[in-house]
Design brief:
By secondary structure, the chain is an alpha/beta fold. Helices cover about 35% and strands about 15% of the residues. The two termini are about 20 Å apart.
């Protein structure tokens, strides 16, 4: 069972658009509550959820708990899509995904349910795409410290390092093994067949994508965003890269879009794209 929250609009009329908000890796779904509430206040219901091993979906003991990126995509995101569809049967579903949540969403077996996508700071985790001045310390952290500590603790103790939520061992080791510009499942998982199936579903992601990034983001650089979007050849992508000064903010980085101070400057920028799904002819994909 996964922990999740549905943000329900106060309006009584039937919702014509519903949003699934998928977290970045190791980030609590609760961190997105303000943005989800913003959408709900404008008549759009939103489902947020924690991947297995994280937050409300964490077991009592994380050591020895099995979780892979394929699980997050196939079962967790796939289950969240199915739940949202069952609850809002006639609505256009829109995905909003943060960071590597875009890859998780794209590999879901029922990704065709979505009419369109908003990707906030999306990237693939390839270290040469990181912002140059942060590249060396992040390579040391993600590809050196993380796998070493994961093997000692049986999970990555991110909380102790003030790096977000603790991460299941399987996910942490997959992330640490990401060294190639291409996504190579055989390099990051023992079950390459299952990983290839997940990646094959990237071909099924269609419809328009709005990808938003920021000049001061150490992870999702323009190069990294383009690499991510190239994994979805069937989609039409619009990329918006902003400097903090463009939106009257001192910094935005990888997480700033969801902070309180972004409410006026940034959130209205994505609302028309999400809302425009209401005017599209309804066509629900088939559950896989």
């Amino acid at each position: 069972m996964l922990g999740g929250t549905v943000y329900i609009p106060k309006r009584s009329r039937e919702s014509t658009t519903a949003v699934l908000l998928s977290s970045g890796g190791g980030i609590l779904a609760a961190k997105y509550a303000r943005f989800a509430s913003f959408l709900a206040a404008r008549g759009i219901p939103v489902l947020t959820y924690d991947y297995r091993g994280i937050g409300g979906s964490r077991p009592r003991k994380l050591r020895g708990f099995r979780a892979l990126a394929e699980d997050w995509s196939e079962f967790d995101c796939g289950g969240a899509i199915a739940y949202l569809r069952s609850r809002y049967a006639n609505a256009h579903l829109v995905s909003v995904a943060h960071s590597i949540g875009a890859l998780i969403t794209g590999g879901a077996p029922n990704v065709e349910e979505f009419a369109r996508h908003v990707f906030i700071c999306p990237h693939t985790g390839y270290y040469r795409d990181y912002l140059f001045k942060y590249r060396l310390p992040m390579v040391g952290l993600w590809h050196g410290v993380m796998p070493a500590l994961t093997r000692v603790f049986g999970y990555f103790p991110a909380k102790r390092l003030r790096l977000g939520e603790d991460i299941p061992a399987g996910i942490a080791l997959q992330w640490a093994a990401r060294h190639s510009p291409e996504l190579r499942p055989e390099a990051t998982t023992r079950d390459a067949r299952r990983a290839r199936s997940m990646m094959a579903r990237y071909q099924l992601l269609t419809g328009p994508i709005l990808a938003i990034g920021f000049r001061d983001d150490a992870f999702a650089t323009p190069k990294g965003m383009r690499r991510l979007l190239d994994t979805f050849p069937g989609a039409r992508a619009e990329i918006m890269v902003l400097a903090p000064m463009d939106v009257q903010m001192r910094s935005v980085g990888h997480f700033g879009f969801f902070r309180r101070e972004a409410a006026r400057a940034l959130w209205p920028k994505v609302l028309p794209f999400i809302d425009s799904a209401r005017e599209m002819p309804h066509h629900a994909g088939q559950l896989a």
